[in-house]
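INTERNAL TRANSFER SHEET
From: sequence group
To: structure group
Subject: Saccharopine dehydrogenase [NAD(+), L-lysine-forming]

Please process the attached sequence and return the structure record in the designated field. Keep the field labels unchanged so the import script can parse them.
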Amino acid sequence: MTGLTLLMREESRPTERRAPLSPETAGDMLREGVAISVERSPRRVFHDEEYAAAGCALVPPGSWPDAPEDVYVVGLKELPDRPCLLRHRHVFFGHAYKNQPGARDLLRRFAEGGGALLDLESLVDERGRRVAAFGYWAGYAGAALAVLRHRGELAGPLTPTRREDLDKALAAHRKPLRALVIGALGRCGRGAGDALTAAGAEVTRWDLEETETLDVTALLDHDILVNAVLATGPITPFLTAGTLRRPRRLSVVADVTCDVGSPCHALPIYDRTTTWQDPVHRVDGLDVIAIDNLPSLLPCEATVDFAADLAPYLAALGDSGVWRRAEAAFTAACTSHDLLRKEDHA
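Return from structure group:
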């Protein structure tokens, strides 16, 4: 798309090391005529100099609010609280379309500032399938942490690693365990299954067919549960406070989806996410891992795979059905919160 300008912002979250573009994919887009600026960041898994060598212009961190209005601002996780009003078109995971806590405030910032959220979760093809996602590595990391916790080897703070080192940790000190992955057929579920297999676990895989009528007794007869279900609407919980009072083998839950506070929350036994500093929340004798940026524990692999999927769509930003559907999702979300001005409906 001729004349397209992107600015890749620095992530404000201290534990976020991923990026939406790798130096390689940025270089490919530059050769296609896309102009790319990259905010400097000491935390990003790829160094500033690697982006500069690919041809990107380096700019100071936090400079995106002053960028020209036609620039698309690209990131991954949440925006800082300032500026209050957002005038640019932003591409990132907004987590604002399932009535999550803070969703209305974020959408209001866009609606009142004249900008737009092109949510990465809403980049879908004609069949509604995500075109770029971190799901595989989220599942892999979540399941790996659950195994390490089951062995008594997991404590905070967590630090980023590479798959080869994580696999070595999974292969060491093996002991028999039974693990259940719900949502096993998706990207996230496949990643979880691969990590559990690397750890020598006996893996049970459930998807839509197995959860239509949930066998709670069978669920509780596993050591580990990994929830990898991508819910888009209210869902019948897999576990409740009452369920946990039943006899069970289950000792560790990794909730990769982290839909806490939303009607899509499949595990309402907990009400807050966990962190890199404090990765485990104890609930009625059950260890819950609910970290909402799990793929950043494997930032290199996660960035390389995600960027390869996303870059072709970014190069055609605003000029395809994928982006039109993302814009429609933003408009629908704003409408549901009664945030659009009357002239916006004209």
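Handover comment: The radius of gyration is 21 Å. The CA atoms of residues 25 and 311 lie 6 Å apart.
Transfer complete.
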